[in-house]
């Protein structure tokens, strides 16, 4: 296990190095000049040249990238072109909202997905199974922006049960929990549908196994058979889906944060891309990529606890 963790951390460094290079080059190749955006329409040619010189944009791209890597090794991710704020400070300010949203969405997805998938497998070919399959198809198909808008229209505007958007209240308060309900459902629905489908397939495969039939023949109760003997083995592929989806949720918060006016990493990234704010874009992408790889490492560790037969030699 220790060897696995060391290998994954080495892979993490190489992966982040590759991602930083691709993002850095993509931002410089993309149309649009940060100096023009900062200077505005009234800026003269000399003003634009001075801005480029101040930001270091007049140097060769490779030299800029080498300086950027050197700064990262010293813990310096640069400063925003637009505000002059440290990239680290900008991320620290926005990241808690994204983590709260992604975590709440994952909790919604896990609860709905696993429970629905297990019940659907137990009641195979019943109306419950049909409803679960329909829910999974709808959850994957419905766009986040449309679902979010409909939830706002129904529960915030018409019924006035929940706030329209924003995450201003502390999470441990009633108001803070209310603020999370609609965006968490919006973001977690697609993941819940995928987890439900995977839970159903995995549970159906496990309950048809020989050891389950043997346990049933010995008189083991149905509840113990499902929740103790079958569930643990069925969870291995489900944990994989959960891990991948959690990493995806961090990047997928972009649309949801826009719809619900949440000041998170996704919204920060969108604003930075529109303003060609290279340091902010690079910092946020690296953060999301690092978390995605780290979550997958945690998933591999969880495998060993779920099934001790799994080795990583």
Automatic annotation (TrEMBL):
Keyword annotations? Cell membrane, Ion transport, Membrane, Nickel, Nickel transport, Transmembrane, Transmembrane helix, Transport
Organism the protein comes from = Virgibacillus oceani
Main subcellular localization, coarse class? Answer: membrane
Its domain of life reads: Bacteria
Subunit details: The complex is composed of two ATP-binding proteins (NikD and NikE), two transmembrane proteins (NikB and NikC) and a solute-binding protein (NikA).
Compartments, as annotated in UniProt: Cell membrane
Q: Where would you find the membrane-spanning parts of this chain?
A: 12-30, 101-122, 134-160, 180-198, 285-306
PROSITE patterns per the UniProt record, alphabetical: ABC_TM1 (PS50928)
For molecular function, the Gene Ontology terms on record are:
nickel cation transmembrane transporter activity
Q: What is this protein called?
A: Nickel import system permease protein NikB
How would you describe this protein's topology in the membrane? Multi-pass membrane protein
Q: Which family does it belong to?
A: Belongs to the binding-protein-dependent transport system permease family. OppBC subfamily.
Indicate the segments forming the ABC transmembrane type-1 domain, all copies. Answer: 95-303
Matching entries from InterPro entries are given as:
BPD_transp_1_N (IPR045621), MetI-like (IPR000515), MetI-like_sf (IPR035906), Opp2B (IPR050045)
Instruction: Name the GO cellular-component terms.
Output: plasma membrane
